[in-house]
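Hi support team,

I submitted a single chain yesterday and got back a structure, but I'm not sure I'm reading the C-alpha cell output correctly. Could someone confirm the output below corresponds to the sequence I sent? I've pasted both exactly as they appear in my results page.

Thanks,
R.
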Amino acid sequence: MLTLWDVILNIKDSISETRKKQFVFLVILSITTAIVEILNLSVLDILIKKILNQGSIEGETKFNSLYLLNKIFALHPKYVLLVLIVFLLLGLTFRLITISLQYKYTAFIGADLAKRSFYSIINMPYQWHTSKNSSEAITILTKDADQFTIFVQECLSLLVNSSLVLIVSAWMIQYSISYFSTIILIFSIILFSIYQYNKIPLRKQGTIHTKTNQSSIKIVQETLGSIREILIKNSFKIHFDEFNSNYLRYRMSISKIATRVQAPRTILETIVIIIIAIIFVIFNSSKARYIDFTITGTLLFGILKLLSPLQICFTNLNNLYAVQPSVLKIVNSLNTYKKNFKKKENNFNNFKKHPPLQDFKKLTLKEVNFKYEDSRNMLLKNISLSISKGDKVGIIGRTGSGKSTLIDIILGLLTPTSGQL
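Hi R., thanks for writing in. Yes, this is the structure output for that exact sequence:
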C-alpha cells in the first residue's frame, strides 16, 4: 500500500513546472508570514517591558542583533503600540494572502490532476472499459476527484501552518527555553497520542466512505436501467431497502470521520486553557512574578498565536488519512495509464498499418485467438475468415460465444491474443 509520502511524490511527478513554481512561492510566503509573527511577539515583548518600565536599551542585549528591534525599543510606549498594531495588521494581511493562494493553487492542481485522470480513463484500452462497471469510472471522476483535491488542499495547508508553528516555536524556545520547552513537550506527547489513535480508524472509515459512495451510484444506475421491470414486478422495495442501507453506511462514515477530525480541536483548546491557568497560578505564587511577567505575557500571546495553526495542522493530518483510499484510486488510475501508454501506443501504430475500413478491399483474419485478461479460457479460437468490400455477412451464435468480441477485433478496438488481422 502506498504511503502518504509516496502519494505526494506521485503528485509531484504529475504537476506542471508552473504549479511547482507556485508551490515554491507559497513556501516562501509561509516563511515570510512566520517571520512577521515573530516580529509581532518581539514587539509585544518590548511593549510589556516599556509598560512595566523594566530594563533599558543599554542593559538589553536581546535585541542588539536586530537593528529594527533596537529602534523600536527606543520609542515611547504609545509608539511601540502603534508599531505592534502595524505588524499585527501586516501579519493578518500575509495570512489572508497565504490562505487565498493556498485554496487557489489547490483548485489549479486539483483541476489539472482531475483532467489528467479523466484523460487517462478515456484513453484506457477498450478491454479495460468492458471489464469495469461504469459506476467505478463515475466515482473516480467525481467523488474520488473531489477527495483528491481535498488531499492536495490539506497538504498545502499542512505546509503553510506547520512552517508557522515550527518557526514561531523555535523563536519561543530560544526566548524562554525552560518554560516553552516544557509546553512543547506536553503538546507533542498529547498530539502524537491522538494522531496514532485516529490514524487507522480514519483510513478504515475512508475506505467505507469510498466504497459505499460507489455502491450508491451503482444501485441508482441499475435501478433506473431496470425501471420497466421494477414497475411490472412491483419490486421497488428491494431496491429501496438496498439503497437506504448502503447510503446510511455512507453518511455514518462521514459522521465518524468528522467526529475524529473535529474532536482534537476541542481537546487542544482545553489543554491551552489549562496551561494558561497553571502559568498564572505559578507566577502568582512566585516571588519573582514582577520580573517574569514579561515572559509570561509574551509566551501566552505566542501560545494563542500557535493554537489555530496547531489545530489546523492536526485537522490536516486526520483528513489526509480519511481521504487516502480515494486518493490511491486516482493514483492507481494514473499509474495504470502510464504503464499501458507504450503498449497502447504500439497498438495504435499497428492499427494504422491496416487500411482504413472505408478504403479496404478485403479484410482477412488468420488463426485469430482471443481471451480477456481476467479469463483463463480462449473466447475465440483459430478464427480465419475473409470479407471483401460490399459483402453482407451475418455472424450467429449463442449468447456469450464471442460475436461482439469478434466485431470489436475487426474494428480494431481489441487486439487479438494471437493471430493476424
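A quick pointer for reading it: The beta strands are 362-370, 380-388, 418-420. Let us know if anything else looks off.

Best,
Support desk
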